[in-house]
Amino acid sequence: MHSSSRVRTAAVAALALTFSLVSAVVAPTAQAADNPFERGPAPTTAILDATRGPFATAQVSVPSSVAGFGGGIIYYPTDTSQGTFGAIAMSPGYTAAWSSISWLGPRIASHGFVVIGIETNSRFDQPASRGAQLLAALDYLTQSSSVRTRVDASRLAVGGHSMGGGGTLEASSDRPSLQAAVPLAPWNTDKSWSEIRVPTLIIGGESDTVAPVSSHSEPFYNSISQTEKAYLELNNASHFFPQSVNTLTGRMAVAWLKRFVDNDTRYEQFLCAGPTGSSVQEYRATCPMVS
């Protein structure tokens, strides 16, 4: 072989090696960039079941003088290196204050979300009114609140307990651009939600006598047909299970929000197979979920 050929061959080999090394370095970065909304470490059951997630949080009060709802509290991650976060507005149930389910605020926020827990205009507001108030709270959060620059207004969700859960369905019907909904022991006189296009996780209690699952949670779940959905029934749980810390409710709510607000498929492992154990009466879900 002529020396010039050997030089060319060596040069090509060196170039190929360089390209392969660069590819090895670049590939993980490109892969990570596939989902710009991914926040936090790889999930585990231990992380999801802990009292707090990986993000430190702070909170700020919302005055009752705001338009459209009765004020409340915003919980948000203090980390400013992650960019903006998805957000969820949550409503308490009939006659209840936000304090009745307030444990969910910092718990969800600590996994990388901004949470606004609302007070309703009246403790007696019905689901349709609570749904409108949830949407008003999201508008306030993204447009006027002191933490609006931390929120990605394109990645919003709603949730709530009892009539707040019924209001969650109402809000999802009225604003199909929402990314996720989490009704807890939902109550509503409307049993059909075939128009909903918002991915919905319904959690009900087997022993609920206020909103029995047979006439509320299950018909709601069965009627949803145009989007991803999941139904978790907690064994022997009453209507008031969301009013005390419930590890499984927290785990599944966070996983659902991570999957559909953050588009983080790492959380499908908790949603497709679903939870098991003595606290689970039943679990159903549409899987595999659309990526």
Q: Brief description of this entry?
A:
With 291 residues, the protein is of the alpha/beta class. The protein is 33% helix and 20% strand.
What descriptive keywords fit this protein?
signal; 291 residues; disordered N terminus; 8 helices; nine-stranded mixed sheet; Rossmann fold; PET_hydrolase/cutinase-like; Lipase; alpha/beta; AB_hydrolase_fold
Protein model, in words:
- Helix 6 (217-223) links the parallel strand 7 and strand 8 (229-234).
- The protein has a nine-stranded mixed β-sheet with strand order 1-2-4-3-5-6-7-8-9, with helices on both faces.
- Helix content is 33%, strand content 20%.
- It has one domain (51-285): Alpha/Beta hydrolase fold, catalytic domain (Rossmann fold), CATH 3.40.50.
- The chain has helices at 3-32, 45-49, 104-109, 127-143, 163-174, 217-223, 247-260, 268-271, and strands spanning 57-62, 72-77, 85-91, 113-118, 151-161, 180-184, 200-205, 229-234, 280-285.
- The chain has 291 residues and is of the alpha/beta class.
- Helix 4 packs across helix 5 (163-174).
- The model is unreliable at 1-33 (pLDDT under 50).
